Amino acid sequence: QKEVEQNSGPLSVPEGAIASLNCTYSDRGSQSFFWYRQYSGKSPELIMSIYSNGDKEDGRFTAQLNKASQYVSLLIRDSQPSDSATYLCAVTEDMRFGAGTRLTVKP
Amino acid sequence: DAGVTQSPTHLIKTRGQQVTLRCSPKSGHDTVSWYQQALGQGPQFIFQYYEEEERQRGNFPDRFSGHQFPNYSSELNVNALLLGDSALYLCASSPRDNEQFFGPGTRLTVL
Lengths: 107, 111
Description:
heterodimer; A: about 110 residues; mainly beta; six-stranded mixed beta sheet; 11 strands; globular; B: about 110 residues; four-stranded antiparallel beta sheet
């Protein structure tokens, strides 16, 4: 069974800190990875995509991919209270999402 | 440019009834995927449509069926509703094999 695993949290960080969110996947053949943010009662919103090993930066967000270890992570620098949401990791080939990690940024 | 739209926003049905949910993709997108999201869970893939054909299907029973129209819009049909079908139903569109963008969802409650 192909799986996408995330720590459910909640993960709590103070405002201005770095939040680190992790995701592991079971299918070694996976090539496309995505991070979505979902506010309570809303639909998922695409934050970043990553396809190659290494880091990809977009503003305060950095996605990291390590295919050998089968994990993908998302770092949020200078965390803001508005970043408080559930973060979903997705592997597109299988259309699989993790259960999400709930992040709370405390002022 | 309108994003992905879904209708209706909310829906209440009783067990055994049938429901149809609708989705219009983002302009320029030809692929539509449907997901079911239960409270506190990640989205579960139902199926994907491309060129009016079901291209890929998740682990959902045949009670869940769909259709894609020539203008790329799509419908999700669920027959013989069960209490466990209560969830947020999400439609996502994409250019083929690319990033998916979600609509606002339809909240289905089965009583």
